């Protein structure tokens, strides 16, 4: 009986270690999804800065330069919006993929645990 419990504990420890090792390999993907989101936010700030630079260069109100000013401002706004969109989409897609990968890994380890308990647990008796 003690030999059986010891073998079962050894198997459980090995399976937990295997699960942890495999899960740790996903840490880089989770980190990169956060980096993509933050890069999108940095792009948003840069876009707003680009949008406001022409306003700062406007010395006095000149109706003839307003068309040029609005064109320059819209270019900065498009940079801000496109980088925000790119950061959100890429981060969300990568995070979703790693979520599915983590769920599959948990299912694999659970199935492996059941398999080991059924097949190796019965061999110990």
What does this protein look like?
This protein has 125 residues and is mainly alpha-helical. It is 90% helix and 0% strand. The chain is built from three helices and no strands. It has helices at 2-24, 27-57, 66-123. It is rod-shaped and about 85 Å long. 4% of the residues are buried.
Short description:
The protein is an all-alpha fold and 125 residues long.
Low-confidence stretches: none
SS-derived structural category: mainly alpha
As an assembly, this protein is: single chain
| Annotation field: number of helices | 3
Level of helix content?
Answer: over 70%
> Overall 3D geometry?
rod-shaped
Main sheet record: none
Overall number of strands: 0
Distance between the termini: 8 Å
How large a portion of the residues is in β-strands, by DSSP E? under 5%
State the order of secondary-structure elements, H for helix, E for strand.
HHH
Radius of gyration: 28 Å
Query: Averaging pLDDT over every residue, what do you get?
Result: 83
